[in-house]
TrEMBL record:
This is Calcineurin-like phosphoesterase family protein. InterPro entries: Calcineurin-like_PHP, Metallo-depent_PP-like. PANTHER family: SHEWANELLA-LIKE PROTEIN PHOSPHATASE 1 (PTHR46546:SF4). Residues 7-219 form the Calcineurin-like phosphoesterase domain. It comes from Prauserella rugosa. SUPFAM superfamilies: Metallo-dependent phosphatases (SSF56300). GO terms for molecular function: hydrolase activity.
């Protein structure tokens, strides 16, 4: 277990399924306490919306973060677009976003993207502060971790540190247009699929560092043309430069806890 690194993709409110899978991998015990020792566990964001208990999932992760730190391990998470949505509704509600493209607001987007009233009600100031300061991008070993499979992160800077800093400044402020831009950019996807995927992945890795991108956000079942229930492994693509780990838990797929570096079974 020591020195092992694990990544988990989009949980979308499925707190209990997450706990079951972490237990299966020896990372938590029967009482949901950290048992991973000095292991590192990264989440790629999108804890909330679509499923019943997003705040419960975040609360579990925060508790594991404290316990892992005491044990010499590490638990950390990236922000997903659904965390931006959760925080945006909390801060701006149904205030219209200045736009030439018709009426839009965080509240409206939250409703049509599976927002759960119980998550908004359970959102405390402490959780808002913690979430608002999580990174968008991170490195672990030779991996570049990102929530969304998009190049739009580069609009905020040309290094991981700069991108995280720019977005943290936005989230610390009250500029609705800039907040909206964070949501909009992080909702884009599929940058590494198709004939130009390898090139896009390699140019991003050249710019931000790392040998392999690991992302969530876009379910791998539709990339493979199968149903999420038939997914058993993450999906390595774009010439081996990109690993997709969102198995579509909200759509009946498994909660993958992926050990890095990932080696395909066949
Ligand atoms: Mn997402």
């Amino acid at each position: 277990m020591s020195d092992s690194t694990f990544v988990v993709g989009d949980v979308h409110g499925h707190r209990d399924e997450l706990a079951d899978e972490l237990r299966e991998h020896g990372l938590i015990d029967d009482a949901d306490n950290w048992s991973g020792g000095t292991a590192t566990l990264w989440f790629l964001g999108d804890f909330v919306d679509r499923g019943p208990d997003g705040i419960g999932a975040i609360t579990l992760v925060r508790e594991l973060q404290r316990q892992a730190a005491d044990a010499g391990g590490c638990v950390e998470t990236l922000l997903g677009n659904h965390e931006i949505l959760l925080l945006g509704v909390h801060r701006f509600g149904d205030t219209d976003v200045p736009s030439d493209f018709g009426p839009r607001s965080f509240a409206r987007s939250w409703e049509i993207n599976g927002g759960q009233a119980s998550d908004q009600e359970a959102l405390t100031d402490d959780l808002v502060e913690w979430l608002s300061t999580r990174p968008l991008l991170a490195h672990t070993g030779e991996h570049l971790l990102m929530h969304s499979d998009t190049l739009e992160y580069l609009e905020w800077g040309s290094s991981v540190e700069k991108i995280n800093e720019t977005v943290h400044d936005v989230l610390a402020g009250d500029d609705l247009s800039r907040w909206w831009e964070v949501w909009r950019r992080m909702t884009t996807r599929y940058a590494f699929r198709g004939p130009h995927g390898v090139e896009a992945a390699e140019s991003l890795l050249d710019e931000l560092g790392g040998e392999r991108i690991v992302h969530g956000h876009s379910v791998i079942a539709d990339q493979l043309g199968i149903h999420p229930v038939d997914i058993e492994q993450p999906y390595l693509y774009a010439g081996g430069r990109v690993l997709g780990i969102d198995a579509g838990l909200f759509a009946g797929g498994p909660c993958l806890v992926v050990s890095l570096p990932y080696v395909p079974e066949d």
